[in-house]
Amino acid sequence: MSTDPPHIRVRSLVKEYGAVRAVDDLDLDVPAGEVFALLGPNGAGKTTTTEILEGFRERDGGEVSVLGEDPGRAGRAWRARIGIVLQSSDDYAELTVGELVGHFARYYPRPRDVDEVIDAVGLEPKRNSRVRSLSGGQRRRLDVALGIIGTPELLFLDEPTTGFDPQARRSFWELVRRLRDEGTTILLTTHYLDEAEQLADRVGVIAGGRLVAVDTPARLGGRHEQRARVVWRDGEELTPAPTALVAALSERYAGEVPDLQVLRPTLEDVYLGMIHE
Ligand SMILES: Nc1ncnc2c1ncn2[C@@H]1O[C@H](COP(=O)(O)OP(=O)(O)OP(=O)(O)O)[C@@H](O)[C@H]1O
């Protein structure tokens, strides 16, 4: 385990909007280099929490440290070390993709190569197209390009693949893995459980402004200890030892077991169980 201080450290975070307690005594640690996915139903408090960490919203209580500083007071040098994938770049409709990414690169002390970033998000055929002519999914890729152009140490990705076609989602996942391999810490908010499972080292489930569970995708909610459901043409059984059952079935049928399936609870199954408790 790393002994470096965590890139994100939150203690007893509280945020209220009038009578609504959007964030209710939330604790969170994200170590350097981790991909952490925040899951939770609409209105759970994910955006509020993320925006406090990004320095865009004030908190009502608690301690927050991001890259060692309080985001409520941190300045430009701190901001250059984080990357944020903001929703939509409509304000720049008349610029081309290449111009816009180049424009953002100049804000940062250590920008990535503009052409490499455009390639990485799969927008090379659109380099000379105006932003207003891009499709919804292409705009989202552009948002991602703007979030990573400054070589951030910590990247916030808020529902990054909404509107992506399946192929674009896969290539985005590859990009996130590459960023992680380079050591970028990533806080990802997503409603796609498969995305969390593919990308996250750990997932946290927020419900009612509280973090109700934190674990690896494989272990969340005791998923790895739950029984498997073995289904075949003539029956089904819940068992902690599916291999033994399949061996017995194989003997019974003297070979191929008709329509055999071994099913385990998906991340979505355990997640839905948690937020409905
Ligand atoms: N500016 C605001 N003024 C008043 N209430 C707000 C404001 N922003 C958020 N809320 C309320 O705070 C709660 C948490 O909202 P938040 O946007 O953080 O949820 P979320 O988990 O990001 O949801 P979603 O998945 O829909 O994006 C909700 O009840 C929401 O209505």
Automatic annotation (TrEMBL):
The keyword Transport applies. This is ABC-2 type transport system ATP-binding protein. One of its GO terms (molecular function) is ATP binding. InterPro entries: AAA+_ATPase (IPR003593), ABC_transporter-like_ATP-bd (IPR003439), ABC_transporter-like_CS (IPR017871), ABC_transporter_ATP-binding (IPR050763), P-loop_NTPase (IPR027417). Keywords: Antibiotic resistance, ATP-binding, Nucleotide-binding, Transport. Pfam families: ABC_tran (PF00005). It is a peripheral membrane protein. It comes from Kineosporia succinea. It is found in: Cell membrane. The keyword Nucleotide-binding applies. Residues 8-233 form the ABC transporter domain.
